[in-house]
Amino acid sequence: MKPVRTASLALALCLAPLFAAEPFQAGIGRVKITPQEPIWLSGYASRNRPSEGVVHDLWVRALALEDSRRNRVVIIGADLIGLPRAITDPVAARLQKEYGLDRARVLFTATHTHSGPVVRSNLTAMYDLDAENARRVQQYGDVLAQALFDAAAAALGDLKPARVFFGAGRGSFAINRREPTPKGIRLGVNPSGPTDHTVPVIKVTAPDGALRAVLFAYACHNTTLTGDFYQISGDFSGFAQLALENRHPGATAIFFTLCAGDQNPHPRGTLELARQHGEGLAAEVERVLAGEMKPLEGPLRAAFLMTELRFAPHTREMFEQRLNDSNPHRVRHARLMLKAYEEQRPIRNAPYPVQAIRFGRSLTLLALGGEVVIDYQLRLQKEYASREPLIVAAYANDVAFYVPSVRVLKEGGYESVDSMIFYGMPGPFDEDVEERVVKAVRQVMKRVGR
After folding, report:
1. In principle, which of 53, 75, 353, 398 could form an S-S bond with 85, CB 3.0–4.6 Å?
2. Which residues are paired to 161 by β-bridges?
3. What pLDDT, on a 0 to 100 scale, did the predictor assign at position 12?
4. pTM above threshold 0.70
5. Under 8 Å between Cβ of 325 and 331
């Protein structure tokens, strides 16, 4: 009888993993956020009228994950130019109140499509909207805030056993856009400039292997469609998400943008190119999903930090001199800055969010606010990725300005100087901007055990 008991025990031990609890619970939520009326589109200062039709719908998509210790995180993606703190902070506070989620455990991301609506308090200095169009933007902000909460709540209410995997592919259409010329850096095409074509992919499946969600990313501006395009769309990322969801009915695809501040699609300029880039990206994600992927593990650790970035010194006289500028955007910006001086609140510093979510010892998702240039992605990958995979997302939690590296800052150009006009910021950052960002990254990485 003794050998029989031993054999039975051995068989039970072999079969135990088949019946053990799954390492994660996962839930999905999604809410359509396509505007119900024509609305001003964001991203290009040249636009002079509201939207004219819809190519495809825009969505807020959310993924909730819970590990075996009941640690939770919620990752929210939106088909929008950016999500400002004026919207994300109240939504995060509501999620904390109603679901007990610490701020570090809610991540907001945006695809940065330039064919989506102006989002309240994001890039609003780019346009001089009349009362009716300003009303529509304000009203849309209220709808958006509710949609973000509803998508997260739906995901938290949908938790089911799941498995999570990581893999990576390669994109092909991003190119550095900081083109050197005899007159300085201009927005163009720079084939010799730094890029990173990595396409990280996170797969979420049911215990039987059925795909429930896929998160994927790429370091490329969502600007295939240019300022003369007036239809609402998600640009290439919208086409990519749709392609994946069509191939996997019932699954949800969430795209988030990596450090794409100085990366553009190439070529660009037509709806057909946006479709080609998106479907090509989806095909590469599909290839990764079909191959061998690394199982992710718990516990889920998270950290969130607000640091401050300093602007270079500026004076009232600097902005007074710009009041007679021939560029109306520079004049409007000068008036905005002078108003801040008159109210004795000139902008000297700016809050900046940095967040990290770590899956056991198997993957870390680092999330940086703003339009971060590719130098950060390359630097942080070099510093951290040799130990375990690292995803460096940008456009996360707040999009209040571009974040140049010290190299880009010294070279000048749109990302370091001119863009500040449209974001309503006083001017370029101080030369310590890169080290301040990296210092904050190191703090949150240490908090999650990296």
Report:
1. 398
2. 25
3. 41
4. yes
5. yes
